[in-house]
Amino acid sequence: MENNLKIVFATGNAHKVHEVNEIAKGSGIEFILPDEGFDPIEDGETFIQNSYIKAKDAAILSNNLSLADDSGLCVEALDGAPGIYSARYDSTPQKRIDKLLTNLAPFGNRKAKFVCAMTLVDNKGEIIHQVVGECKGAIAEKQSGTNGFGYDPVFIPEGYDITIAQMPENLKNKISHRGKALRMMIEFIKNNIM
Ligand code: ITT
Q: For residue 128, with 0-12 CB atoms within 10 Å meaning exposed, 13-18 middle and 19 or more buried, which class applies?
């Protein structure tokens, strides 16, 4: 659509861009990838700090409004791990799942939550708005399903008996940490920017 408000989505993760554009459908907002050379150093200590680092980098690089998502899985029995290190917990998505299931095996408590922090900045990298969305659930005993990405095959959201990877995309987006955060952010953008 020609008249969409275009916002750079500060990520190198194609799944995230796909999901946010699905969630934003009909809002008049379109998320586009950052210009070439986007390679931020995510050395923050919280999801919110890392989302700001990414948004600022992409905004300055592309001279555009930018939104970033920093997200991850926090497991109660593992004191919140892998948390902000979710993407770096091991070298591949499958190894990350295997490591999580192995590390959690001795525990009876399988409670966990997905967290998504989002920061919107202007083209100079100044913060405009920040939100956090969460999705509570539990880690499955074994992985199931192929939809989604990351830890979706082992995460069972509260109120369901299937993993996110077994759900259709529209159901994930309705209940996910990213869906919740983005809908709050879109509401803000509609009321304050568009
Ligand atoms: P960018 O930093 O470039 O955005 P990334 O994948 O490295 O891409 P993060 O640093 O925010 O992003 O790490 C998020 C990780 O947390 C992601 O790689 C997954 O392992 C996990 N994760 C986040 N959201 C998820 C979701 O909706 N489903 C499954 N896993 C998710």
A: middle
- Is residue 6 within a helix (H) or strand (E), and if so which, with residue range? strand 5-9
pLDDT tens sequence across 102-160: 999 999 999 999 999 999 999 999 999 999 999 999 999 999 999 999 999 999 999 99
Q: Could you tell me the distance, in angstroms and rounded to a whole number, from the CA of residue 86 to the centre of ligand 1?
A: 7
Dihedrals phi, psi of 35, to nearest 5 degrees? -60, 165
Sheet containing strand 66-75, edge to edge, reads 29-32, 5-9, 66-75, 111-121, 127-139, 155-157
Distance from the alpha carbon of residue 23 to the mean position of ligand 1, in angstroms:
17
Instruction: Tell me the whole-structure pTM to 2 decimals.
Output: 0.97
Query: What's the structural domain count of the chain?
Result: 1
Q: How confident is the model at residue 35 (pLDDT cuts 50, 70, 90)?
A: confident
Which positions are catalytic?
A: 70
- Domain range for 65 is 5-192
Q: Any residues with Cβ below 6 Å from ligand 1, and which? A: 11-13, 16, 42, 69-73, 86-87, 114, 148-152, 176, 178
Q: Measuring from atom 18 of ligand 1, which residue has the nearest CA?
A: 87
**Which CATH number goes with the domain that contains 105?**
3.90.950.10
